[in-house]
Write a structure and sequence with these properties.
The longest helix is centred in the N-terminal third of the chain and has 27 residues. The protein is mainly alpha-helical. It has a single domain, classed as ABC transporter involved in vitamin B12 uptake, BtuC (Orthogonal Bundle). It contains 12 helices and no strands. Helix 2 packs antiparallel against helix 3 and helix 3 runs antiparallel to helix 4. InterPro entries: ABC_transp_permease. This is ABC transporter permease. It is a multi-pass membrane protein. One of its GO terms (molecular function) is transmembrane transporter activity. Its main location: membrane.
């Protein structure tokens, strides 16, 4: 076992990369749940974004077009969920699970001809002298632009929910949809837009996996990232900055277990591979076993809205 071979700066840099797709999906789902909707189809939207983004990037030669295509793919799948739950009033949990299964199956078909193909490279962001700072330069300032835009998105969502009028309306819809409707707000319209935002973020998270983190297409390559994102929303008590901290915690565990394997730690590989998911479950158990006020769940979460005539 050679633990001295693990470089802390490289470890931190890899942590940020590993956390980015999960954070993107989690921050989108956080907004959806703040509007009172529980979408368990995050995994399906992520894999759709990974597949569509990869296909578009390969055929256009542009990673930017790939990310745009991924966002649109995630939105398309989210609109299917919105149709089922907001127009046809089907059960949100069942619809979300069906969305995940549908996404996994459809992408397995669409991606058949793209296995083994390398996508166009996404360049690193040149931050000049910042990248030359000892330790911090390697750890924080050598990433692609998506990493930094994701952090900015977390801040934007925090500001939107806390200070903007639209964000306050969205929170009102999520807390008590009947009261919001009585005040004249269009509950279903607000929820559809929130669902679309969540779909776009999940699609972008999936594209980050297939275009940057693991630059290739593999069937089912999200391997549970969408479920982790759902868990992170609860871990964060529906707060954006906590979601980022949770995503970085999970990313750190993922990267650490890979580095421990490479360093020759005498622990079965299977135990190390399952450790991120075990820690996620442990965190959820700890959070759920606390006092009720430790949670910040929206009052109308997973409750269908029936407009009065």
């Amino acid at each position: 076992m050679i633990l001295g071979s693990i470089n802390p700066a490289v470890l931190m840099a890899a942590l940020m990369v590993a956390a980015t797709p999960i954070l993107l999906a989690a921050i989108g789902e956080l907004v959806v749940e703040k509007a009172g909707v529980l979408n368990l189809g995050v995994e399906g939207m992520m894999i759709m974004g990974a597949c569509v983004g990869f296909i578009v990037a390969v055929n256009t030669g542009s990673p930017i077009m790939g990310f745009i295509g991924a966002a649109l793919g995630g939105i398309a799948l989210s609109l299917l969920f919105a149709l089922l739950t907001q127009a046809l009033m089907t059960n949100q949990v069942a619809s979300g699970l069906a969305l995940t299964l549908f996404g996994l199956g459809l992408t397995a078909l669409l991606g058949q001809g793209y296995v083994g193909i390398t996508p166009p490279r996404t360049p690193k962001l040149d931050l000049g002298p910042l990248s030359d700072i000892p330790f911090l330069g390697r750890a924080l300032f050598t990433h692609d632009i998506v990493v930094y835009l994701t952090i900015a998105l977390v801040g934007a969502v925090w500001w939107f929910l806390k200070y903007s009028r639209a964000g306050m309306i969205l929170r009102a819809v999520g807390e008590n949809h009947d009261a919001a409707h009585a005040l004249g707000y269009h509950v279903k319209r607000v929820r559809v837009f929130a669902i679309m935002f969540g779909g776009a973020c999940a699609g972008l998270g999936g594209a980050y996996l297939s275009l940057i983190r693991v630059p290739q297409w593999t069937e089912g390559m999200t391997v549970g990232a969408g479920w982790i994102a759902l868990a992170l929303v609860v871990f964060a008590s529906w707060r954006p900055w906590r979601a980022m901290a949770g995503a970085y915690l999970f990313g750190g565990v993922v990267v650490l277990q890979l580095n421990l394997q490479a360093a020759g730690v005498r622990i079965p590989v299977e135990y190390l591979s399952m450790s991120p998911y075990l820690i996620t479950i442990l965190v959820l158990v700890i959070i759920s076993s606390g006092k009720g006020r430790s949670l910040n769940a929206p009052g109308s979460l997973n409750k269908p809205f029936h407009a009065s005539s």
